[in-house]
Amino acid sequence: MTESKPRAARSASQHDSGQDWPTLDKDLGRMSLIESAALHTARPLIGVGVSLLFVAIVTAIVALATGELQGTLMIAIAAAFAAYMALNIGANDVANNMGPAVGANALSMAGAIAIAALCETAGALLAGGEVVSTISSGILAQGEITDGAHFVQAMMSAMLAAAVWINTATVLRAPVSTTHAVVGGVMGAGIAAAGFGTVNWPTMSAIAASWVISPIMGGVIAAGVLAFIKWKIMYVPDRIAAARIWLPVLIGVMAGTFACYLALKALRQVVHLDLHEAALVGFGVGLLSWRVSVPLVRRRSEGMENRNASLKVLFRMPLVISAALLSFAHGANDVANAVGPLGAIVRALQSREVAAEMTVIPYWVLMIGALGISCGLIFFGPRMIRLVGSQITKLNPMRAYCVALSAALTVILASWLGLPVSSTHIAVGGVFGVGFYREWYMARRARTEGATRSTKLLPIEERQRRKLVRRSHLTTIIAAWLVTVPASALLSALCFLLITTLFG
């Protein structure tokens, strides 16, 4: 009896200590959650820190490399503005190319960022030497700004204002046109420097028209391609047999369109082709791609079930390739938005003349744009990629392929018609076009199947919830598009007044 008590006491003590261990585990679990939350909160600060370091390194290197040139301080400051602009382009604009592929689960976020960074850099360095003509000569009337100092200050103001506006739009989760932001910046600085008469208003009217033309064309073409895929591939008795016939055709159209697109927009530094010559190149590349893809698609589709899931697998690789090509073309074309004004400033300070005739950006300037776009994409791009890829409407590989093909087809059609368009507006318009077409198609099928009565009995809130396109994003994006040019112009005018006050 005397030994049983200590045993009972020991057993009670062990029982009590066993109850304490779960409490300790819970506390440790809470501590690990706090640590994870702290890391998640600090992650954006890492991107900010690396971005500031990138801008500082660019400024220092440019100041040292141009130490013997006149206006070294102005070139170094302009390089800092250009680096900041490139970071924001990578954070905002690149999402239009990779967002659909990520939203369709054809690429992981890490894979999309890696491919986009590589292709954007390659496009910028290999074929990005031509400055968009509107940056230094199209927006401002010739001969209105004859003072070299005022021209340099105007270009610096345009870069800084455009970068600030794109940064603001990225925070607000609105994909905007970087070209329009730069155009608005140049316009605002020109007005502040020489009055309203310095602006080429016909060019500005054409750019304003592109606000409507670009997204509508992109949306209509994307919806048309999706309608064709549904008609010829998805809703037929034998989907795999239909895919073997029509998927190579679509791949040929994609390859030919991108060949023509790259010839017109990205490869002018290598070889200059007009629209008809580029179309012939595109036709040849498309025909060859169709012929090569026929056995590849047949081999890939062997043993696949007659399901839409199999079609998603077949469309995945063409979608990834098209996204990579779009990124290459974007890097070649839109790098000028980041560093075009910097190239104009360098030429103006070197020659002591307004750089209206400058057509080729110095290679070190291109490096700033290429590296800045890649850094901005890596640290700030995922948020916008998710928005474009999955938060506007649900995408699968077929729908995302329609968006990518629409972007290239719309640019080619607009070039043929002589219409100014924005690649950002086209891509986002394509996403909305696919979503609205699906809404229309589902409503049409419901009416055909006699399900309209039950749909009408649903509350308004439930009907809105079942919409396939999120209207809140539509409103935000359209508002940002409309405000981009005037907001950039106003910011640029204020920056010009500040810079002229500081530097005289």
Automatic annotation (TrEMBL):
GO biological process, one term: phosphate ion transmembrane transport
GO MF annotations, alphabetized: phosphate transmembrane transporter activity
Highest taxon above the source species: Bacteria
UniProtKB keywords: Membrane, Phosphate transport, Transmembrane, Transmembrane helix, Transport
Family designation: Belongs to the inorganic phosphate transporter (PiT) (TC 2.A.20) family.
Cellular component GO terms, alphabetical: membrane
Organism: Alloyangia pacifica
Entries under InterPro entries matching the protein: Phos_transporter
Membrane topology listed for this record: Multi-pass membrane protein
Stretches for region Disordered: 1-23
Pfam families xref list: PHO4
Transmembrane stretches, start-end: 45-65, 71-90, 102-128, 148-169, 181-201, 207-229, 241-264, 270-292, 313-332, 361-380, 400-419, 425-443, 474-499
Protein name: Phosphate transporter
